[in-house]
Design a protein that fits this description.
Order of helices and strands: EHHEEHEHEHEHHHEHEHEEEHEEEEHHH
Structural class: alpha/beta
Strand order of the largest sheet: 3-2-1-4-5-6
Distance between the termini: 22 Å
Oligomer: single chain
Number of helices: 14
Number of strands: 15
Largest sheet: 6 strands, parallel
Helix content: 25-40%
C-alpha cells in the first residue's frame, strides 16, 4: 500500500506556494505515495490543480462566525476526515496550536513539527514525535520546510523547485486581463522586489543576481518541465513559441535546454508527445510484459519543433519515470546531449486493479524500454556528460563586485597609457562586440547560481560553433531497434 503524508500549512498564499517543494521531494523519493495538505480555505486555489497533491483539507476561518456549535461540528468533521486517511506521517509547519493539536490527534505514527523558540512547553512537544530546529530569518522558508522532511530520511536539497499549477480556464482569464491592459502575449518576466514584511524581502544583491541570470540565458532557450500532466505538451509548445518569438525567430536561437531535473514523471502519453515533438521518426518507447501480445511500441511522427537545433537535456537523481522516457528517447536517437547526474531508475509500468468499491491494488505489469532496447529499471539513465552541482563557494570579497574580466587581471591593453585606439570598426560593430561580451559574462555568473544549466548553455554554444544540425545525424549513429515495423497509431490508456 502506498504511503500517505499530510502537510499542514495554516498561513497565506505565498507560504502555501513555498510548501510545494516538499510535495516534489516526497514524490521524487516515493513516486507512488499520496501527499495531502491541510490549509486555509482562501488559499485552496493555490494548489487545487497541483498534479501531485491527492487530497486538500481546508479550514474556513468563517466557521467562527457561524456560532460555537457549528464551529465545533466543522472542526470535528475535519478531524474525522484526517483520521480516516490513516497517514503514515504528518508534518506541521505552522506555529499555531490548532495545527499542533490536529497533528497529535491525527493518529499518525510519525508527527513532525518545528522547535520554535517560543513553543517550549510540554504540551507542544507532546504533539510531535520529531522536532526539527527553527532556522533564523536569514534562511529561506523553503529550507525550513524541506528540513522538516529529514526525519523521513529525505535530505535537504535547495534545488527542489516551487511549483504553481493552474487550470486552463485560469490561464485564459489571466490572458484576457493582460489583453485588457494592453499586453499582447509577448514573453515577459514579472519581478516583485518588495513585501510589506521586511523579513520576506530579498536583498538587493540577490535580486540583481536573479535578474542577471534571467538575462544571461540569452538565446539558448531553457524549457523547464517539472511534471508530465494533461497540460504539459500544450504548455511546452506555447512557451517554445513565445521564446522563439522573443529571440527574434528560430534563426536567432542557438539551441534548446530541456531541464528535467527533479521531475518525478507523470502521464505516459505526455512523455511520448514531448519526445515526439523533437523527433522526426523512429521508436520513442516500448513496454514489454510477460506475454508477447501485451507488448506495445510508440513511434515518432514527422515534425521537429526545434527544427534540428542543438539540444541538451538536464537530469539528476530526481528525474524519474516519464522524464526518463523522454531522456532515453532523445539520447538514443542522438537528438540531444544528456548532462547532469544519473536519473532515478523507475522503468516499470503499474496497472491499478479495482478490488472493492473502496480499495484497489497497484500491480507492476511491464517494463519500459528505450529505443535501443535498454531497460532503465533500477539502473537509471547515465548522462553523456556527468556534471555534479557543486556547493556554493564563498565569494571572493576583494573581487566580488568586479566583472571577471577585471578581477583576473590588473589591466588590459586598453588600460595602458598611450594605447592605440581601435578605429577600424563602426559604432554598430563595437556595440555588437560589447553585447556578445555581456552575454558571455552573464553565462559566467550563471555558473555560480546553477552550474549544470551554465554547462548546458556552454555545450549549445559549442554545437553552434560546429554548425551542428540534428537532421544531419546519420542513421548509422542511431539505434538499430527503431521499431519501424510497428504502427504509428499506438494508444495509451
Amino acid at each position: 500500500m502506498a504511503k500517505r503524508y499530510l502537510l499542514i500549512k495554516l498561513r497565506h498564499h505565498g507560504d502555501v506556494l513555498l510548501m510545494t517543494p516538499m510535495v516534489q521531494a516526497l514524490k521524487q523519493r516515493e513516486p507512488d505515495c499520496e501527499v495531502d495538505v491541510l490549509i486555509y480555505q482562501e488559499t485552496r486555489d493555490m494548489v487545487a490543480a497541483h498534479p501531485h497533491i491527492h487530497t486538500i483539507h481546508c479550514i474556513d476561518r468563517q466557521w467562527k462566525k457561524q456560532g460555537t456549535r457549528a464551529q465545533i461540528g466543522h472542526e470535528w468533521a475535519l478531524l474525522q476526515a484526517v483520521r480516516q486517511r490513516q497517514y503514515d506521517a504528518v508534518v506541521c509547519l505552522a506555529d499555531q496550536w490548532r495545527g499542533a493539536l490536529l497533528t497529535r490527534a491525527s493518529g499518525a505514527k510519525v508527527r513532525i513539527g518545528v522547535d520554535f523558540p517560543y513553543r517550549k512547553g510540554r504540551l507542544w512537544q507532546s504533539c510531535f514525535t520529531d522536532l526539527v530546529p527553527a532556522l533564523g530569518m536569514d534562511r529561506h522558508t523553503v529550507e525550513q520546510n524541506l528540513l522538516a522532511l529529514e526525519p523521513l530520511g529525505i535530505a535537504l536539497d535547495k534545488t527542489t523547485p516551487s511549483t504553481m499549477a493552474y487550470r486552463p480556464e485560469d490561464k485564459r482569464h489571466v490572458e484576457q486581463m493582460l489583453r485588457e491592459q494592453g499586453w499582447q502575449g509577448e514573453g515577459y518576466v514579472v519581478i516583485h522586489p518588495g513585501s510589506r514584511w521586511f523579513f520576506k524581502c530579498w536583498t538587493p544583491d540577490k535580486m540583481a543576481a536573479l535578474i542577471n541570470r534571467l538575462q544571461g540565458e540569452g538565446h539558448a532557450v531553457v524549457l523547464r518541465v517539472t511534471t508530465f500532466n494533461d497540460e504539459t505538451m500544450d504548455t511546452l509548445k506555447s512557451e517554445m513559441a513565445k521564446a522563439i518569438k522573443d529571440a527574434g525567430g528560430i534563426d536567432k536561437v542557438t539551441g534548446f535546454v530541456l531541464d528535467l531535473r527533479n521531475n518525478p514523471g507523470g502521464l505516459l502519453n505526455q512523455a511520448i508527445e514531448v519526445s515526439d515533438a523533437f523527433l522526426d521518426r523512429g521508436e520513442i518507447v516500448s513496454t514489454r510484459g510477460r506475454k508477447p501480445e501485451e507488448s506495445e511500441r510508440w513511434n515518432a511522427k514527422t515534425g521537429d519543433l526545434a527544427q534540428g537545433k542543438p539540444m541538451v537535456v538536464l537530469i539528476n537523481g530526481g528525474s524519474a519515470s516519464a522524464s526518463e522516457i523522454v531522456t532515453g528517447a532523445l539520447q538514443d536517437h542522438r537528438r540531444a546531449i544528456v548532462v547532469g547526474t544519473k536519473s532515478f531508475g523507475k522503468g516499470s509500468v503499474q496497472t491499478v486493479m479495482q478490488v472493492t468499491p473502496d480499495s484497489a491494488i497497484r500491480l507492476t505489469t511491464a517494463r519500459y524500454y528505450t529505443p535501443s532496447g535498454r531497460s532503465i529499471q533500477s539502473l537509471g539513465i547515465q548522462p553523456d556528460i556527468i556534471v555534479e552541482q557543486p556547493p556554493v563557494k564563498p565569494a571572493d570579497e576583494e573581487n566580488a563586485d568586479k566583472p571577471r574580466t577585471e578581477s583576473k587581471f590588473l589591466s588590459s591593453e586598453a588600460d595602458l597609457r598611450g594605447a592605440l585606439n581601435n578605429d577600424s570598426i563602426s559604432d554598430e560593430e563595437r556595440k555588437q562586440i560589447e553585447t556578445e561580451a555581456k552575454e558571455v559574462e552573464a553565462t559566467a555568473k550563471l555558473r555560480e547560481e546553477d552550474y549544470q544549466l551554465a554547462y548546458a548553455v556552454d555545450i549549445l554554444k559549442g554545437l553552434v560553433a560546429m554548425d551542428y544540425n540534428a537532421r544531419e545525424v546519420s542513421d548509422a549513429a542511431k539505434p538499430a531497434n527503431t521499431g519501424e515495423a510497428s504502427g504509428q497509431g499506438a494508444k495509451t490508456e
